[in-house]
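Input/output pair, single chain:
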Amino acid sequence: MMLRKKSLTTSVTALLTAAALMLSACSGGGGGQADPAPNTGDSGTSNPPTEAASDKYVLGEEPLDFSFYGHYDWYTMPTWGADPASEWIKENKKVNVTAINSQGNAAQKYNTMIASNDLPDVLWLERGADVEKLRENDMLVPFDDYLDKYPNLKEWMGDAGLNMLRSSDGKLYQFPNWYTSQPNGNAGYVVNKKIYTELGEPKLETTDDLAKYLEAVKAKYGNQVVPFEPGIEGQGVDVLYSAFKEDASTRWVTIRGVPNGDELTSIFTDPTYRESMVYAAKLFRDKLISQDALTQTSDQIKEKVMTGRVAVYAAASPTENAMNAHGELIAKDPDAGYFMIWPIHKEGLDKNKIFPGTYNQLGWNVSVITKAAKDPEAIFAFLDWYTGPEGQTLLMWGPEGGYWDGLEDDGVTPKFTDKYVSDAAGLGKLQADTTNIQWNGNTVFIDTAKAKFESTLPEDQRNWSTRWQYEVTWKTQSNATEYVNLDPAPESEEGIIRQRVEDIYTEARAKALFAKDEAEVIAVLDKAEADAQSAGYAKLLAYKTEKWQANLAQMRGQ
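Output:
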């Protein structure tokens, strides 16, 4: 995902999540009923620090200033200190973060920084080839000496998860974002309540139901409402893929490989992908999907959702926009707002085996510290604090005295105040403001803290996003940990093939969506398959299969 994704995903992954996120990612897309004690994965409790206390960097004793670069075309870091959480951190922990932005061309910016050896102190980017390129050029600082000294990451992720993040030299260079040991994520379908009510609240469960409903929206509202909004880069089209096969993973679309036995096979020849694209193309042809689905900006999507001009909104992490819009819309009209539905499925399939989004234990992306940093240990100490209970509480619920006051008996879970319920719109705004500075999200802590409090509230008083995570999204995200880190290095033979296949895929997806009929969709995918094979797709799939099988072996402890 995002398959965004998430999706941009917080858990709040969309808050994540989400960025875009979200999210996080979405939130994009965990049961949320776990014991509130820190998750330790397979590591048990961490070893006590062996260093003397005086050897540790103490956050807040002296100023810490570092530069930060988010390696995404879409990402512009918010001004540090402009929101209540980072303002508190800046004032009380003496941390200042200076943004270096991609200006909409992340690939060029990244390559220029490496070529000139002019790196920021911290890069926030996808796991895999780009990280390895930095490591192979001896530009990254390993974290191994810091893990016991600053124990939050080790305690909450556990050794098993950290080992999955280690590079081929056995060292750890990556600090994960929205890592987890339980299901999470936000991918799915959001429905405009007012429009749904005005159309008689029809059954909205199958792909046939969805098509009929979107046609009804168009007939009643014309150009005033977008029947189906697929989010940034047409994420909702990928969400629809999950509707056509039980246990299908949207991650297969993302990695351009579909499991067949113990091998990954072509996405272009996958019957489920073909059926989903035929379906999506018809919706697009009938003007039931945003006609700028593949090119619109996140701000354009947000504006449509916030003003209630969307009937159905599907994406890797639609909860962030929908939550904020819901609060504003119902403030003006109690009959307005949004709700989520159980994932759409093809007639005859088991609705409980449909998964519109995925999660993985390693989370979304990672932060790395470069050798340009003057004091990498101090930066790691901050990131570790940031991912711990105090940092996460600040990011999600602001400074103490507002939405929380004091801690529960466990010493880590915040005690939420009445304002948490009474000012849902304010809380939503705060979380939206901090979404794009949530670089080290701790999914288990956030979900557990919410679960403990929200479970005591009447259903109609729960945070909008949290309610639908409990009821729908966390139950309908599949575990895709086995498919992480499959991409080859960009400059390798397989990496060059991958870029060619990506270009072929992107062009074919657009042409298929714009196709005039089913036959043209199939013809487009046939040509894409032929072109991809000519570009070396079989070799790329063999490479990804080997990496996938290695992941499975590692997850089995082999």
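The radius of gyration is 23 Å. The longest helix spans residues 493-513.
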